[in-house]
């Protein structure tokens, strides 16, 4: 997947940009707060129909403006594709592929595969289990269309059961309808997550070992109530207790992905550099996994080198400048590592300066 051209109007602090991009490495250089992450977020938006940072869509519109617009011109396995997203304040956003509006945005997810590595990923380790489930859901739904629909169905059944619990309904037959649905859809989600992780975990470990030069042992372990057996039986057995609590305490909405360094939880004992290595390895494994689908994902690397020692930086530079990845967008506040990547890569590259939302091509890259 190659984004050849990107046009931006009024997206966060970027008033206007029209960029011809390299099919290899695109480096964005600028001081703090200049708009590098915003630029990557525009690329992210065109893949996921939403920002990776702002939950409220209108916050992506440049202050004091009325709308934002993004246009991306892609090459998807040799076929040109044009994506458009426009949002006016207080109106529904429009998202179009080749000038035709999507009726459901979920139909677009996965069409432009993309992996983002960003400082905000630290929530994956430090945050609650919902962060890790979100990660699993995001990756799996990019290659498995049914997954998202099954998850939506599960969540609807869960919401219905929770409503019964809140109303303190006692009639068993009313619960059974929703519990059977939760068990059915929950099992399907569990099987998808388990199958995905079986393939994913060894690749993650391989990346971690490569970057850390094999100095640490890391583990990922999937935990789910469904591993204990039939979910409908479990739900029936906890119904009285759940009614007192007012919510459902069993099911795949409580699944977790335990992250360990040696025998201990990563979030408690991992250093900042180890945490960063863990996250980079997770995301690169995600890339590898999506890549198997046949369309190489776009890779966004935001401020990736912060907190890493020289050995780990060197390993990542080697990885990034090699042949393993397709089109890459990378940001940094200084040139040191970007120059190293540029020196080592055999791929084509563009270098841009980002200054107060203005993005200009640094012409030395054409020399
Ligand atoms: N809706 C918006 N309208 C105008 N400016 C915005 C909007 N949303 C965010 N900004 C501005 O964007 C800037 C942050 O940009 P960004 O996060 O891209 O910086 P960065 O170059 O990645 O910096 P760093 O190196 O610190 O990560 C802030 O100055 C913020 O005020």
What characteristics describe this protein?
367 residues, alpha/beta, Rossmann fold, Glutathione S-transferase Yfyf (Class Pi), Chain A, domain 2, 2 domains, 10 helices, binds adenosine-5'-triphosphate
CATH homologous superfamily classification of the largest domain: P-loop containing nucleotide triphosphate hydrolases
Give the N-to-C terminal Cα separation: 26 Å
- Estimated radius of gyration: 22 Å
User: SSE order, as H and E?
Assistant: EEEHEEEEEHHHHEHEEHHEHEHEE
Bound molecules: adenosine-5'-triphosphate
Helix tally? 10
What's the CATH C level of the largest domain? Answer: Alpha Beta
Could you say what the CATH topology of the largest domain is called? Rossmann fold
Total domains, how many? Answer: 2
Which architecture name of the largest domain does CATH use?
3-Layer(aba) Sandwich
For the secondary structure, the number of strands is 15
GO biological process, one term: DNA synthesis involved in DNA repair
Protein name: DNA replication and repair protein RecF
Main location: cytoplasm
GO molecular function: ATP binding; single-stranded DNA binding
Task: Kindly describe this structure.
This protein has 367 residues and is α/β, with parallel strands linked by helices. It folds into two domains: 1-113 and 296-367, P-loop containing nucleotide triphosphate hydrolases (Rossmann fold, 3-Layer(aba) Sandwich), CATH 3.40.50.300; 124-294, Glutathione S-transferase Yfyf (Class Pi), Chain A, domain 2, CATH 1.20.1050.90. It contains ten helices and 15 strands. It has helices at residues 36-48, 122-126, 129-143, 145-166, 172-212, 231-245, 266-269, 272-291, 310-321, 335-344, and strands at residues 2-11, 14-20, 25-29, 67-76, 79-88, 94-97, 100-101, 114-117, 218-223, 256-261, 264-265, 298-302, 328-332, 349-355, 358-361. It has a six-stranded antiparallel beta sheet with strand order 2-1-4-5-6-7, with helices on one face. Strands 8-12-13-3-14-15 form a six-stranded mixed beta sheet, with helices on both faces. A hairpin with a 5-residue loop joins strand 5 and strand 6 (94-97). The longest helix has 41 residues, at 172-212. The two termini are 26 Å apart. 39% of the residues are buried. The mean pLDDT is 94. The structure holds adenosine-5'-triphosphate (ATP). Adenosine-5'-triphosphate (ATP) binds at residues 12-13, 30, 32-38, 59, 61-63, 303, 333, 354.
């Amino acid at each position: 997947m190659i984004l050849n051209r990107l046009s931006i109007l009024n997206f966060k602090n970027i008033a206007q940009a029209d960029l011809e991009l390299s099919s290899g490495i695109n480096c964005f250089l600028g001081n703090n707060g200049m708009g590098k992450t915003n630029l990557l977020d525009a690329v992210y938006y065109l893949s996921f129909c939403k920002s990776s940072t702002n939950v409220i869509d209108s916050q992506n519109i440049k202050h004091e403006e009325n709308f934002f617009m993004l246009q991306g011109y892609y090459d998807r396995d040799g076929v040109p594709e044009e994506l458009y997203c426009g949002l006016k304040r207080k109106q529904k956003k429009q998202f179009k592929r080749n000038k035709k509006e999507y009726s459901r945005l979920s139909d677009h997810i996965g069409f432009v595969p993309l992996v983002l590595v960003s400082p905000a990923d630290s929530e994956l380790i430090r945050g609650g289990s919902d962060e890790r489930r979100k990660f699993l859901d995001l990756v799996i739904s990019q290659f498995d269309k049914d997954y998202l629909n099954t998850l939506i169905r599960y969540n609807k059944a869960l919401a219905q059961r929770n409503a019964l619990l809140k109303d303190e309904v006692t009639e068993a037959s009313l619960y059974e309808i929703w519990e059977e649905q939760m068990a059915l859809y929950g099992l399907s989600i569990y099987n998808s997550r388990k199958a995905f992780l079986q393939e994913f975990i060894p690749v993650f470990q391989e990346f971690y070992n490569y970057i850390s030069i094999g100095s640490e042992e890391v583990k990922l372990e999937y935990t789910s109530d469904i591993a204990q057996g039939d979910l409908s039986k479990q739900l029936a057995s906890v119904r009285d207790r759940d009614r007192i609590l007012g919510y459902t305490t069993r099911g795949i909405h409580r699944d977790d992905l335990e992250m360990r360094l040696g025998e201990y939880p990563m979030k408690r004992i991992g250093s900042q550099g180890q945490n960063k290595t863990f996250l980079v390895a997770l995301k690169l494994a995600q890339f590898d996994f999506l890549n198997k689908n046949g369309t190489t994902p776009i890779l966004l690397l935001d401020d990736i080198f912060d907190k890493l020692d020289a050995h780990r930086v060197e390993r990542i530079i080697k990885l990034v400048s090699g042949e393993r990845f397709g089109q890459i967008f990378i940001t940094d506040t200084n040139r040191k590592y970007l120059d190293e990547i540029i020196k080592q890569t055999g791929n084509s590259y563009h270098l841009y300066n980002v200054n107060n939302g203005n993005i200009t091509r640094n012409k030395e890259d054409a020399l």
